[in-house]
């Protein structure tokens, strides 16, 4: 039994607490200091965590001392890509960042050199003609979609732009000016190249001199067992530092993927859904309306048998019109197809048209006006009072043929836009006048002739349903992923689970930088970006508590649940042995095997003796050039080929063994031809200089960027 009762214990507690309070009252200044230090510590931790409280919290980065604020960055993104840009947001922003770096560096260097773009040049770069800037063409849809008339109207209105329109136009001008500066600077750099005569001679030797030789190839498997130590790998990394040294910190993740696939029950349910619709599909009098209600597809075009799915092509051309074939499986869909019609399709047609284009800036009012003009022209053509050629000259907006009576010539399918093609090939009668509306405007069309070989095409309609996992299937896989991550909280645990269960695979990402957004094997987007951001906060070996959810790129259902852990951290500089072991160990192993094999080859041994020693064969190669990448029986062995063409090599004598990509090779040169004499040194040197200039122009920005002082804070914001 305890000496102290519970009552006595409580009394002692009370006495101790009161004594402490008394001491605190005597030394209250200590309490004030401690509270102050604690509050300061919390504030300091918060500031260090955000890293933006010191200075501007909107600082996206710095480029050679010039600040890039978030407001400027996001405005530039809107100006270049628009408010409702599609595609990968992170890829867009990466392009914006690169553009802002390029703009800063190029403006700096061209400013120092006095390179600028005059207003006369700018006008020429914005004028439709041979010097129209490709930046302008790209901004307005590219060469395939560039509308000269629309662009001309916008350009005329540009001087009166205000607000967002003005910002976008000004940004376009900046980009055009920057592109022109870059062209001038690249030209300046490229003019500094000169090719001496000796270099042209060397280049000619590499391209025209040929060699015949015998060789023995000894695969690495012929070596004795060798082991690779950490010190071997470390020495290899150091010797090849230019390959492995990193200028930026990276991370690698180990991850396990739980993939969602439709079950047999999911597939059967989808097939039954199509099967239930088949009777209604067959009975439907309005196929267009039926497929619209059931997310099907229907085209006016008649398709030939060879372009239809071989699964149903025979049925489509043998069954009566109105027949339905299916359900049948094609790719990731169950389908049913209805034979709507069949007809003999012209091989080619000859047509002419008058194109009437409404002014889009004026809206519906001008569309109505153009329709009235089209009606008037149609009446005059049909009653014989109008002349097609004259009307085309007067009204047609197609400058390419208006002065030739709107003639389009002969054409096969695939030349015209869809509504136009569907009409002239499948609906029009030779000689009749009709109107068709396309994205270009209202066409008044006359098919003047057609040719046919009697080939029959079929008009078909489809209903289809993608084979997707049900919500229940997705939930089941999601549950397994969450149960797995709850039990495996380290990378070591992930690897142990994979060793015990053949259904579990641990994959490793590529080395990832803090600003990356794409993961090989997983893709890009917000999920990959979130995973990468987590990697740069995690402890080594830690597994993320959240499960990363990826979607099918086409059908947009949750198709992958990923559990990721931090596998390695590589700081700036040379990597650790562990970080590159998988990549480097095979290379070091082959090098040690090559050393082992070469140590067994005696100087002066014949090729036959060497081949016999290693159970190999002597092979021969003829007409091999220095720049040849592949040799029959040898493979891709540039190191070996390079040794053959060294000066001073003796013919009919075995050379020292050479370690190649696939093994060790011993070569005996038999013959080397003389290089073909250069007939025109000026032209030869010019060709080399042009190649060097092209490479230099591609490398200029990279070299400028490498020498710049860039602070990248983007990871704080997205």
Provide mean pLDDT, rounded.
Answer: 89
Question: Fraction of residues in helices?
Answer: 40-55%
Rg from alpha-carbon coordinates: 37 Å
Structural class: alpha+beta
Describe the main β-sheet briefly.
5 strands, antiparallel
Distinct helical segment count: 24
Enumerate the spans where pLDDT stays under 50 for 5 or more consecutive residues. Answer: 1-21, 42-54
Range of strand content: 15-25%
Number of strands: 20
Shape: globular
Give the oligomer, counting copies of the same chain as homo and different chains as hetero.
single chain
What distance separates the N and C termini?
65 Å
General description of the model:
By secondary structure, the chain is an alpha+beta fold. Among the domains are: 6-50; 210-220 and 581-672; 246-261 and 469-573; 264-344, Chitinase A, domain 3 (Roll), CATH 3.10.50; 348-451, Roll (Chitinase A, domain 3), CATH 3.10.50. It has 24 helices and 20 strands. Strands 4, 13, 14, 15 and 16 form a 5-stranded antiparallel sheet that branches. A hairpin with a 2-residue loop joins β6 and β7 (333-344). α3 packs across α4 (89-113), α8 (163-190) crosses α24 (681-707) and α9 (197-208) crosses α24. The protein is globular, with a radius of gyration of 37 Å. It starts with 5 loop residues before the first helix and ends in a 6-residue tail after the last strand.
Question: Any key phrases for this structure?
Answer:
46% helix; alpha+beta; 24 helices; 4-stranded antiparallel β-sheet; globular
């Amino acid at each position: 039994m305890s000496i102290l009762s519970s009552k006595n214990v409580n009394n002692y507690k009370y006495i101790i607490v009161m004594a402490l309070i008394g001491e605190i009252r005597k030394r209250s200044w200590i309490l004030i200091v401690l509270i102050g230090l604690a509050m300061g510590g919390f504030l300091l931790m918060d500031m260090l965590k955000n890293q933006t409280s010191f200075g501007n919290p909107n600082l996206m980065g710095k480029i050679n001392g010039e600040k890039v604020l978030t407001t400027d960055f996001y405005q530039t993104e809107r100006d270049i890509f628009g408010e409702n840009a599609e595609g990968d947001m992170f890829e867009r922003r990466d392009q914006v960042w690169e553009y802002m770096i390029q703009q800063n560096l190029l403006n700096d260097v061209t400013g120092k050199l006095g390179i600028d773009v005059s207003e006369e040049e700018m006008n020429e770069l914005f004028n439709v003609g041979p010097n129209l800037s490709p930046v302008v063409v790209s901004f307005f849809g590219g060469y395939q979609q560039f509308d000269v008339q629309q662009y001309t109207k916008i350009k005329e209105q540009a001087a009166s732009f205000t607000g967002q329109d003005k910002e976008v136009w000004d940004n376009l001008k900046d980009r055009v000016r920057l592109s022109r500066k870059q062209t001038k600077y690249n030209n300046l750099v490229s003019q500094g190249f000169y090719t001496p005569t000796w270099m042209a001679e060397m280049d000619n030797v590499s391209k025209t001199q040929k060699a015949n030789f015998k060789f023995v190839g000894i695969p690495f498997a012929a070596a004795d067992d060798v082991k690779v130590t950490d010190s071997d790998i470390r020495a290899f990394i150091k010797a090849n530092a230019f390959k492995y040294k990193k200028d930026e910190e990276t991370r690698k993740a180990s991850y396990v993927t739980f993939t969602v696939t439709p079950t047999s029950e999911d597939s059967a349910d989808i097939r039954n859904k199509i099967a239930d619709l088949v009777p209604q599909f067959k009975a439907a009098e309005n196929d267009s309306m039926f497929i619209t209600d059931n997310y099907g597809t229907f085209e006016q075009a008649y398709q030939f048998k060879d372009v239809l799915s071989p699964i149903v092509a025979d049925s489509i051309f043998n069954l009566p019109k109105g027949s339905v074939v299916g359900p049948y499986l094609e790719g990731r869909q169950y389908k049913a197809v209805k034979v709507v019609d069949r007809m003999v399709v012209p091989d080619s047609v000859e047509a002419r048209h008058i194109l009437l284009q409404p002014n889009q800036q004026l809206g519906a009012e001008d569309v109505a006006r153009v329709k009235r003009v089209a009606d008037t022209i149609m009446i005059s053509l049909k009653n014989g009072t109008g002349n097609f050629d004259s009307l085309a000259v007067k009204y047609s907006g197609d400058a390419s043929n208006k002065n030739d009576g709107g003639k389009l010539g002969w054409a096969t399918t695939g030349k015209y836009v869809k509504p136009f093609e569907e009409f002239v090939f499948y609906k029009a009668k030779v000689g009749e006048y009709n109107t068709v509306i396309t994205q270009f405007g209202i066409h008044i069309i006359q098919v003047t002739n057609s040719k046919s070989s009697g080939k029959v095409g079929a008009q078909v309609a489809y209903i289809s349903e993608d084979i997707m996992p049900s919500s229940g299937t997705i939930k089941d896989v999601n549950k397994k992923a969450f149960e797995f991550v709850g039990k495996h909280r380290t990378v070591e645990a992930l690897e142990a689970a994979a060793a015990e269960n053949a259904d579990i695979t641990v994959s490793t990402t590529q080395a990832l930088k803090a600003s990356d957004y794409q993961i090989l094997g997983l893709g890009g987007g917000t999920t990959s970006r979130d995973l990468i951001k987590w990697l740069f906060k995690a402890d080594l070996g830690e597994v993320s508590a959240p499960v990363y959810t990826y979607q099918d790129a086409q059908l947009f259902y949750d198709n992958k649940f990923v559990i990721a852990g931090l596998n390695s951290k590589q700081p700036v500089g040379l990597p650790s042995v562990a970080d590159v072991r998988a990549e480097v160990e095979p290379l070091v192993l082959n090098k040690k095997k090559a050393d082992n094999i070469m140590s067994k080859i005696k100087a002066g041994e014949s090729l036959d003796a060497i081949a016999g020693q290693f159970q190999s064969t002597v092979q021969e190669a003829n007409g091999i050039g220095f720049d040849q990448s592949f040799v029959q029986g040898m493979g891709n062995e540039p190191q070996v080929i390079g040794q053959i063409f060294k000066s001073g090599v003796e013919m009919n004598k075995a050379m020292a063994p050479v370690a190649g990509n696939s093994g060790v090779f011993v070569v005996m040169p038999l013959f080397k031809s003389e290089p073909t004499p250069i007939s025109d040194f000026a032209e030869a040197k010019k060709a080399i200089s042009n190649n060097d200039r092209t490479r230099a122009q591609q490398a200029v920005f990279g070299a400028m960027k490498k020498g710049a002082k860039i602070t990248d804070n983007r990871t704080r914001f997205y």
